[in-house]
Design a protein that fits this description.
The complex is a heterodimer of chains A (134) and B (149). Chain A contains four helices and two strands, in the order E-E-H-H-H-H. Chain A has 134 residues and is mainly alpha-helical. Chain A has a single domain, classed as Up-down Bundle (3 helical TM bundles of succinate and fumarate reductases). In chain A, strands 1-2 form a two-stranded antiparallel sheet. The longest helix of chain A is centred in the last third of the chain and has 30 residues. With 149 residues, chain B is mainly alpha-helical. Chain B has a two-stranded antiparallel sheet with strand order 1-2. The chains are: A mainly alpha (134), B mainly alpha (149).
């Protein structure tokens, strides 16, 4: 590395952006703790519920908003956590980059799909395919 | 097996990082002596993997709701089978494991509870806690008639 190492409290400071990613991962995990408890209570409420009950649950802006926040934060956390796991065990740069990129793509698509479904339900849209591919 | 990196730095315990420095390997089944803190650490990785699968199922369930009553009834029938209930119980264990083990990880990340006794206590809670919590949750689900066999 061209820059001399910097230290804080006797601990070397990250040369690149690793520390920022670590912090972001921890912020996501901290946010997922209360959201996870909410997911558990929601799963309990909606288990065995009728279709109308579930649709009415999503019509609440608070529920839909929390569901969207949970979806986005969880998949961001998953992408960062999987990146750490891949980086720990895969040391071949090409394979590692490909795997991390592939996982990012999968989590991005899942997050987008999840938010898409929640927004449709929150807005009371007609059931899919609703003209798509008709 | 040595405790210091050899000339190439590539022995059982050390790997050369992209910045050219030898670093100890991550905790791994074959490298570290078994301990509950290690079990908690490995289980958190497993839990994150399982949570990713669970999230896939939740997005599938969201899709079923968005596709209307027929798709919703179909996925509901799947989860009402014994296998579906078993998967549901597994997902419940995974969610509680994520909460307890995630909380342990966050506490340890601040540098707290890293001495032997509190580290063991938190790890034991994170490893064993999800099972009685999931059993309680399912007992409540059966008791309130939300699910039945």
């Amino acid at each position: 590395m061209s820059h001399p190492a910097k230290f804080r409290n006797g601990v070397k400071i990250s040369e690149r952006h690793g520390a920022g990613e670590w912090t972001l991962e921890k912020v996501c995990l901290a946010a997922l703790m209360p959201l996870g408890v909410w997911v558990a209570s929601t799963a309990f409420t909606l288990t065995g519920a009728s279709y109308d009950t579930v649709v009415a649950w999503f019509a609440s802006k608070l529920n839909a908003g929390l569901a969207i926040a949970t979806t986005l934060i969880f998949f961001l956390f998953a992408a960062l956590a999987w990146k750490v796991i891949v980086e720990d065990y895969i040391h071949k740069p090409g394979t590692k980059g490909l795997l991390v990129g592939l996982l990012n793509l999968v989590f991005f698509v899942l997050a987008a799909a999840g938010v898409f479904f929640i927004v449709r339900l929150a807005l009371g849209s007609a059931p899919l395919p609703a003209g798509f591919g008709a | 097996m040595s405790n210091t990196p050899d000339s190439t730095g590539q022995d059982d315990r050390y790997v050369i990082q992209p910045n050219g420095r030898p670093r100890p390997m991550s905790p791994h089944l074959q490298v570290w002596r078994w301990h509950v803190t290690m079990a908690a650490s490995i289980l958190f990785r497993v839990t994150i993997g399982a949570m990713s699968i669970a999230a896939l199922l939740v997005v599938g369930w969201l899709a079923a709701v968005a596709f209307g009553p027929d798709a919703f009834a179909c996925i509901g029938a799947c989860f009402a089978t014994p296998l579906g209930l078993f998967v549901g119980f597994g997902l419940t264990v995974v969610l509680f494991s994520f909460l307890l083990n995630g909380a342990r990880h966050l506490i340890n990340d601040t540098g707290a509870a890293l001495t032997l006794k509190p580290a063991n206590l938190l790890s034991n809670i994170a490893v064993w806690g999800p099972i009685p919590l999931a059993v309680l949750a399912f007992a409540a689900l059966f008791a309130t008639g939300r699910i039945s066999l």
